From TrEMBL:
Keywords: Hydrolase. It comes from Aestuariispira insulae. The lineage of its organism: Bacteria, Pseudomonadati, Pseudomonadota, Alphaproteobacteria, Rhodospirillales. This is asparaginase. Residues 207-323 form the Asparaginase/glutaminase C-terminal domain. It is an enzyme of class 3 (hydrolase). GO terms for biological process: aspartate family amino acid metabolic process. Its EC number is 3.5.1.1. The keyword Hydrolase applies. It holds the Pfam family Asparaginase_C. Substrate binds at S63, T94, D95.
């Protein structure tokens, strides 16, 4: 937009590599690094960037320590400032950024303003760093306001937040959307079915587990891991959504867990494609055991969507029904 310098963006700084400074004990978060960089950049590019304010969430954390309480802190800051700003940037560590992006997409119902997450693989204080381009790109995207939803900006790509996964520990091109193209990449955007009025809905603590199938996994271990008070589990299956269906003990364990009220979600261990229980007999038996398909959702979207739906206090069958519907463009309905 030509009037971008008249728009206002709030930067919520939670920590992460981007704002770290080298110390005797290694890199550690330092609030001044981000503030000094932004002050200098906004002075240089005042006509190309929106006006920005920074709110640091203290203490700054490594994102591997992120909790539901931290998500709620971000949600609260966006809700409190929603009418005052045209967009928001959440500066975040890369390890769990995709989880936070998905979590915010579900919690911010009726969102019509950009919420853009970003961070970096190398601190701003080091050369070379991907921090400057990521941060300024996110600020510009939030100021332009083209996409009124939660997104993630990294390495020149603006991506739907609940479609993103981190795919590299080292590369500047650290995030991808395996089943969805970045915005502006000849993409036909799916609908974001937000409610008409903005509501920020904080998360509640729910008991969710993520388990991956491996050859030799015993029924006893699976039964013990999935026992109540667990509420839901995301099981990473083989291929299109398969499990060792000849292991009757394992299949019986799944049926018992489902009967005990635990919601079982099956997703593929493959990054691309959609989980389907109707393609092979091995998948069909999972469906008979009570599994619901994660379709083409990322693991991050599956986990945070379960947190969101369970937090609404809905009956089990309603959670399972809504889980397979597109609430914020997190899955492809045509698959």
């Amino acid at each position: 937009m030509s009037d971008i310098h008249q728009r206002r963006v709030l930067i919520i700084y939670t920590g992460g590599t981007i704002g770290m400074r080298k110390t005797a004990q290694g890199f550690a978060p330092a609030a001044s690094v981000l503030e000094e960089f932004l002050e200098d950049s906004l002075a240089k590019f005042s006509e190309q960037l929106p006006q920005c304010d920074i709110e640091a969430v203290l203490p700054l954390i490594d994102s591997s320590n992120i909790t539901i309480d931290d998500w709620n802190g971000i949600i609260e800051r966006i809700a409190r400032n929603y009418e005052r700003y045209d967009g928001f940037v959440v500066v975040h560590g890369t390890d769990t950024m995709a989880y936070t992006a998905s979590a915010l997409s579900f919690a911010l119902e009726g969102l019509s303003k950009p919420v853009v997450l970003t961070g970096s693989q190398v601190p701003l204080s080091e050369v070379p760093s991907d921090g400057p381009s990521n941060l300024l790109g996110a600020v510009k995207a939030a100021g332009e306001g083209r996409y009124g939803e939660v997104s993630l900006f990294f390495n020149g790509k603006l991506m739907r937040g609940n479609r993103v996964s981190k795919t590299s520990m080292d590369s500047f091109d650290a995030f991808e959307t395996p089943n969805y193209r970045p915005f502006g990449a000849n993409n036909i955007l799916g609908p974001v079915l937000n409610d008409p009025a903005f509501v920020a809905r904080p998360y509640k603590q729910s008991k969710i587990a993520v388990l991956s199938l491996v050859p030799g996994l015993s029924a006893d271990i699976m039964r013990n891991l999935l026992s109540p008070p667990l509420q839901a589990a995301v099981i990473q299956c083989y291929g299109a959504g398969n499990a060792p269906h000849l292991d009757e003990g394992l299949m019986e364990a799944f049926r018992k867990v489902n009967g005990d009220g635990v919601i079982l979600v099956g997703v593929s261990q493959c990054r691309e494609g959609s989980t389907s229980f109707t393609r092979y007999e091995a998948g069909g038996l999972l469906q008979e055991a009570g599994f619901v398909s994660g379709l083409d959702m990322t693991l991050e979207a599956c986990v945070t969507k379960l947190y969101y739906l369970l937090g609404l206090g809905l009956p089990k069958q309603e959670v399972k029904r809504l889980f397979q519907e597109s609430l914020r463009g997190e899955l492809t309905l045509s698959i």
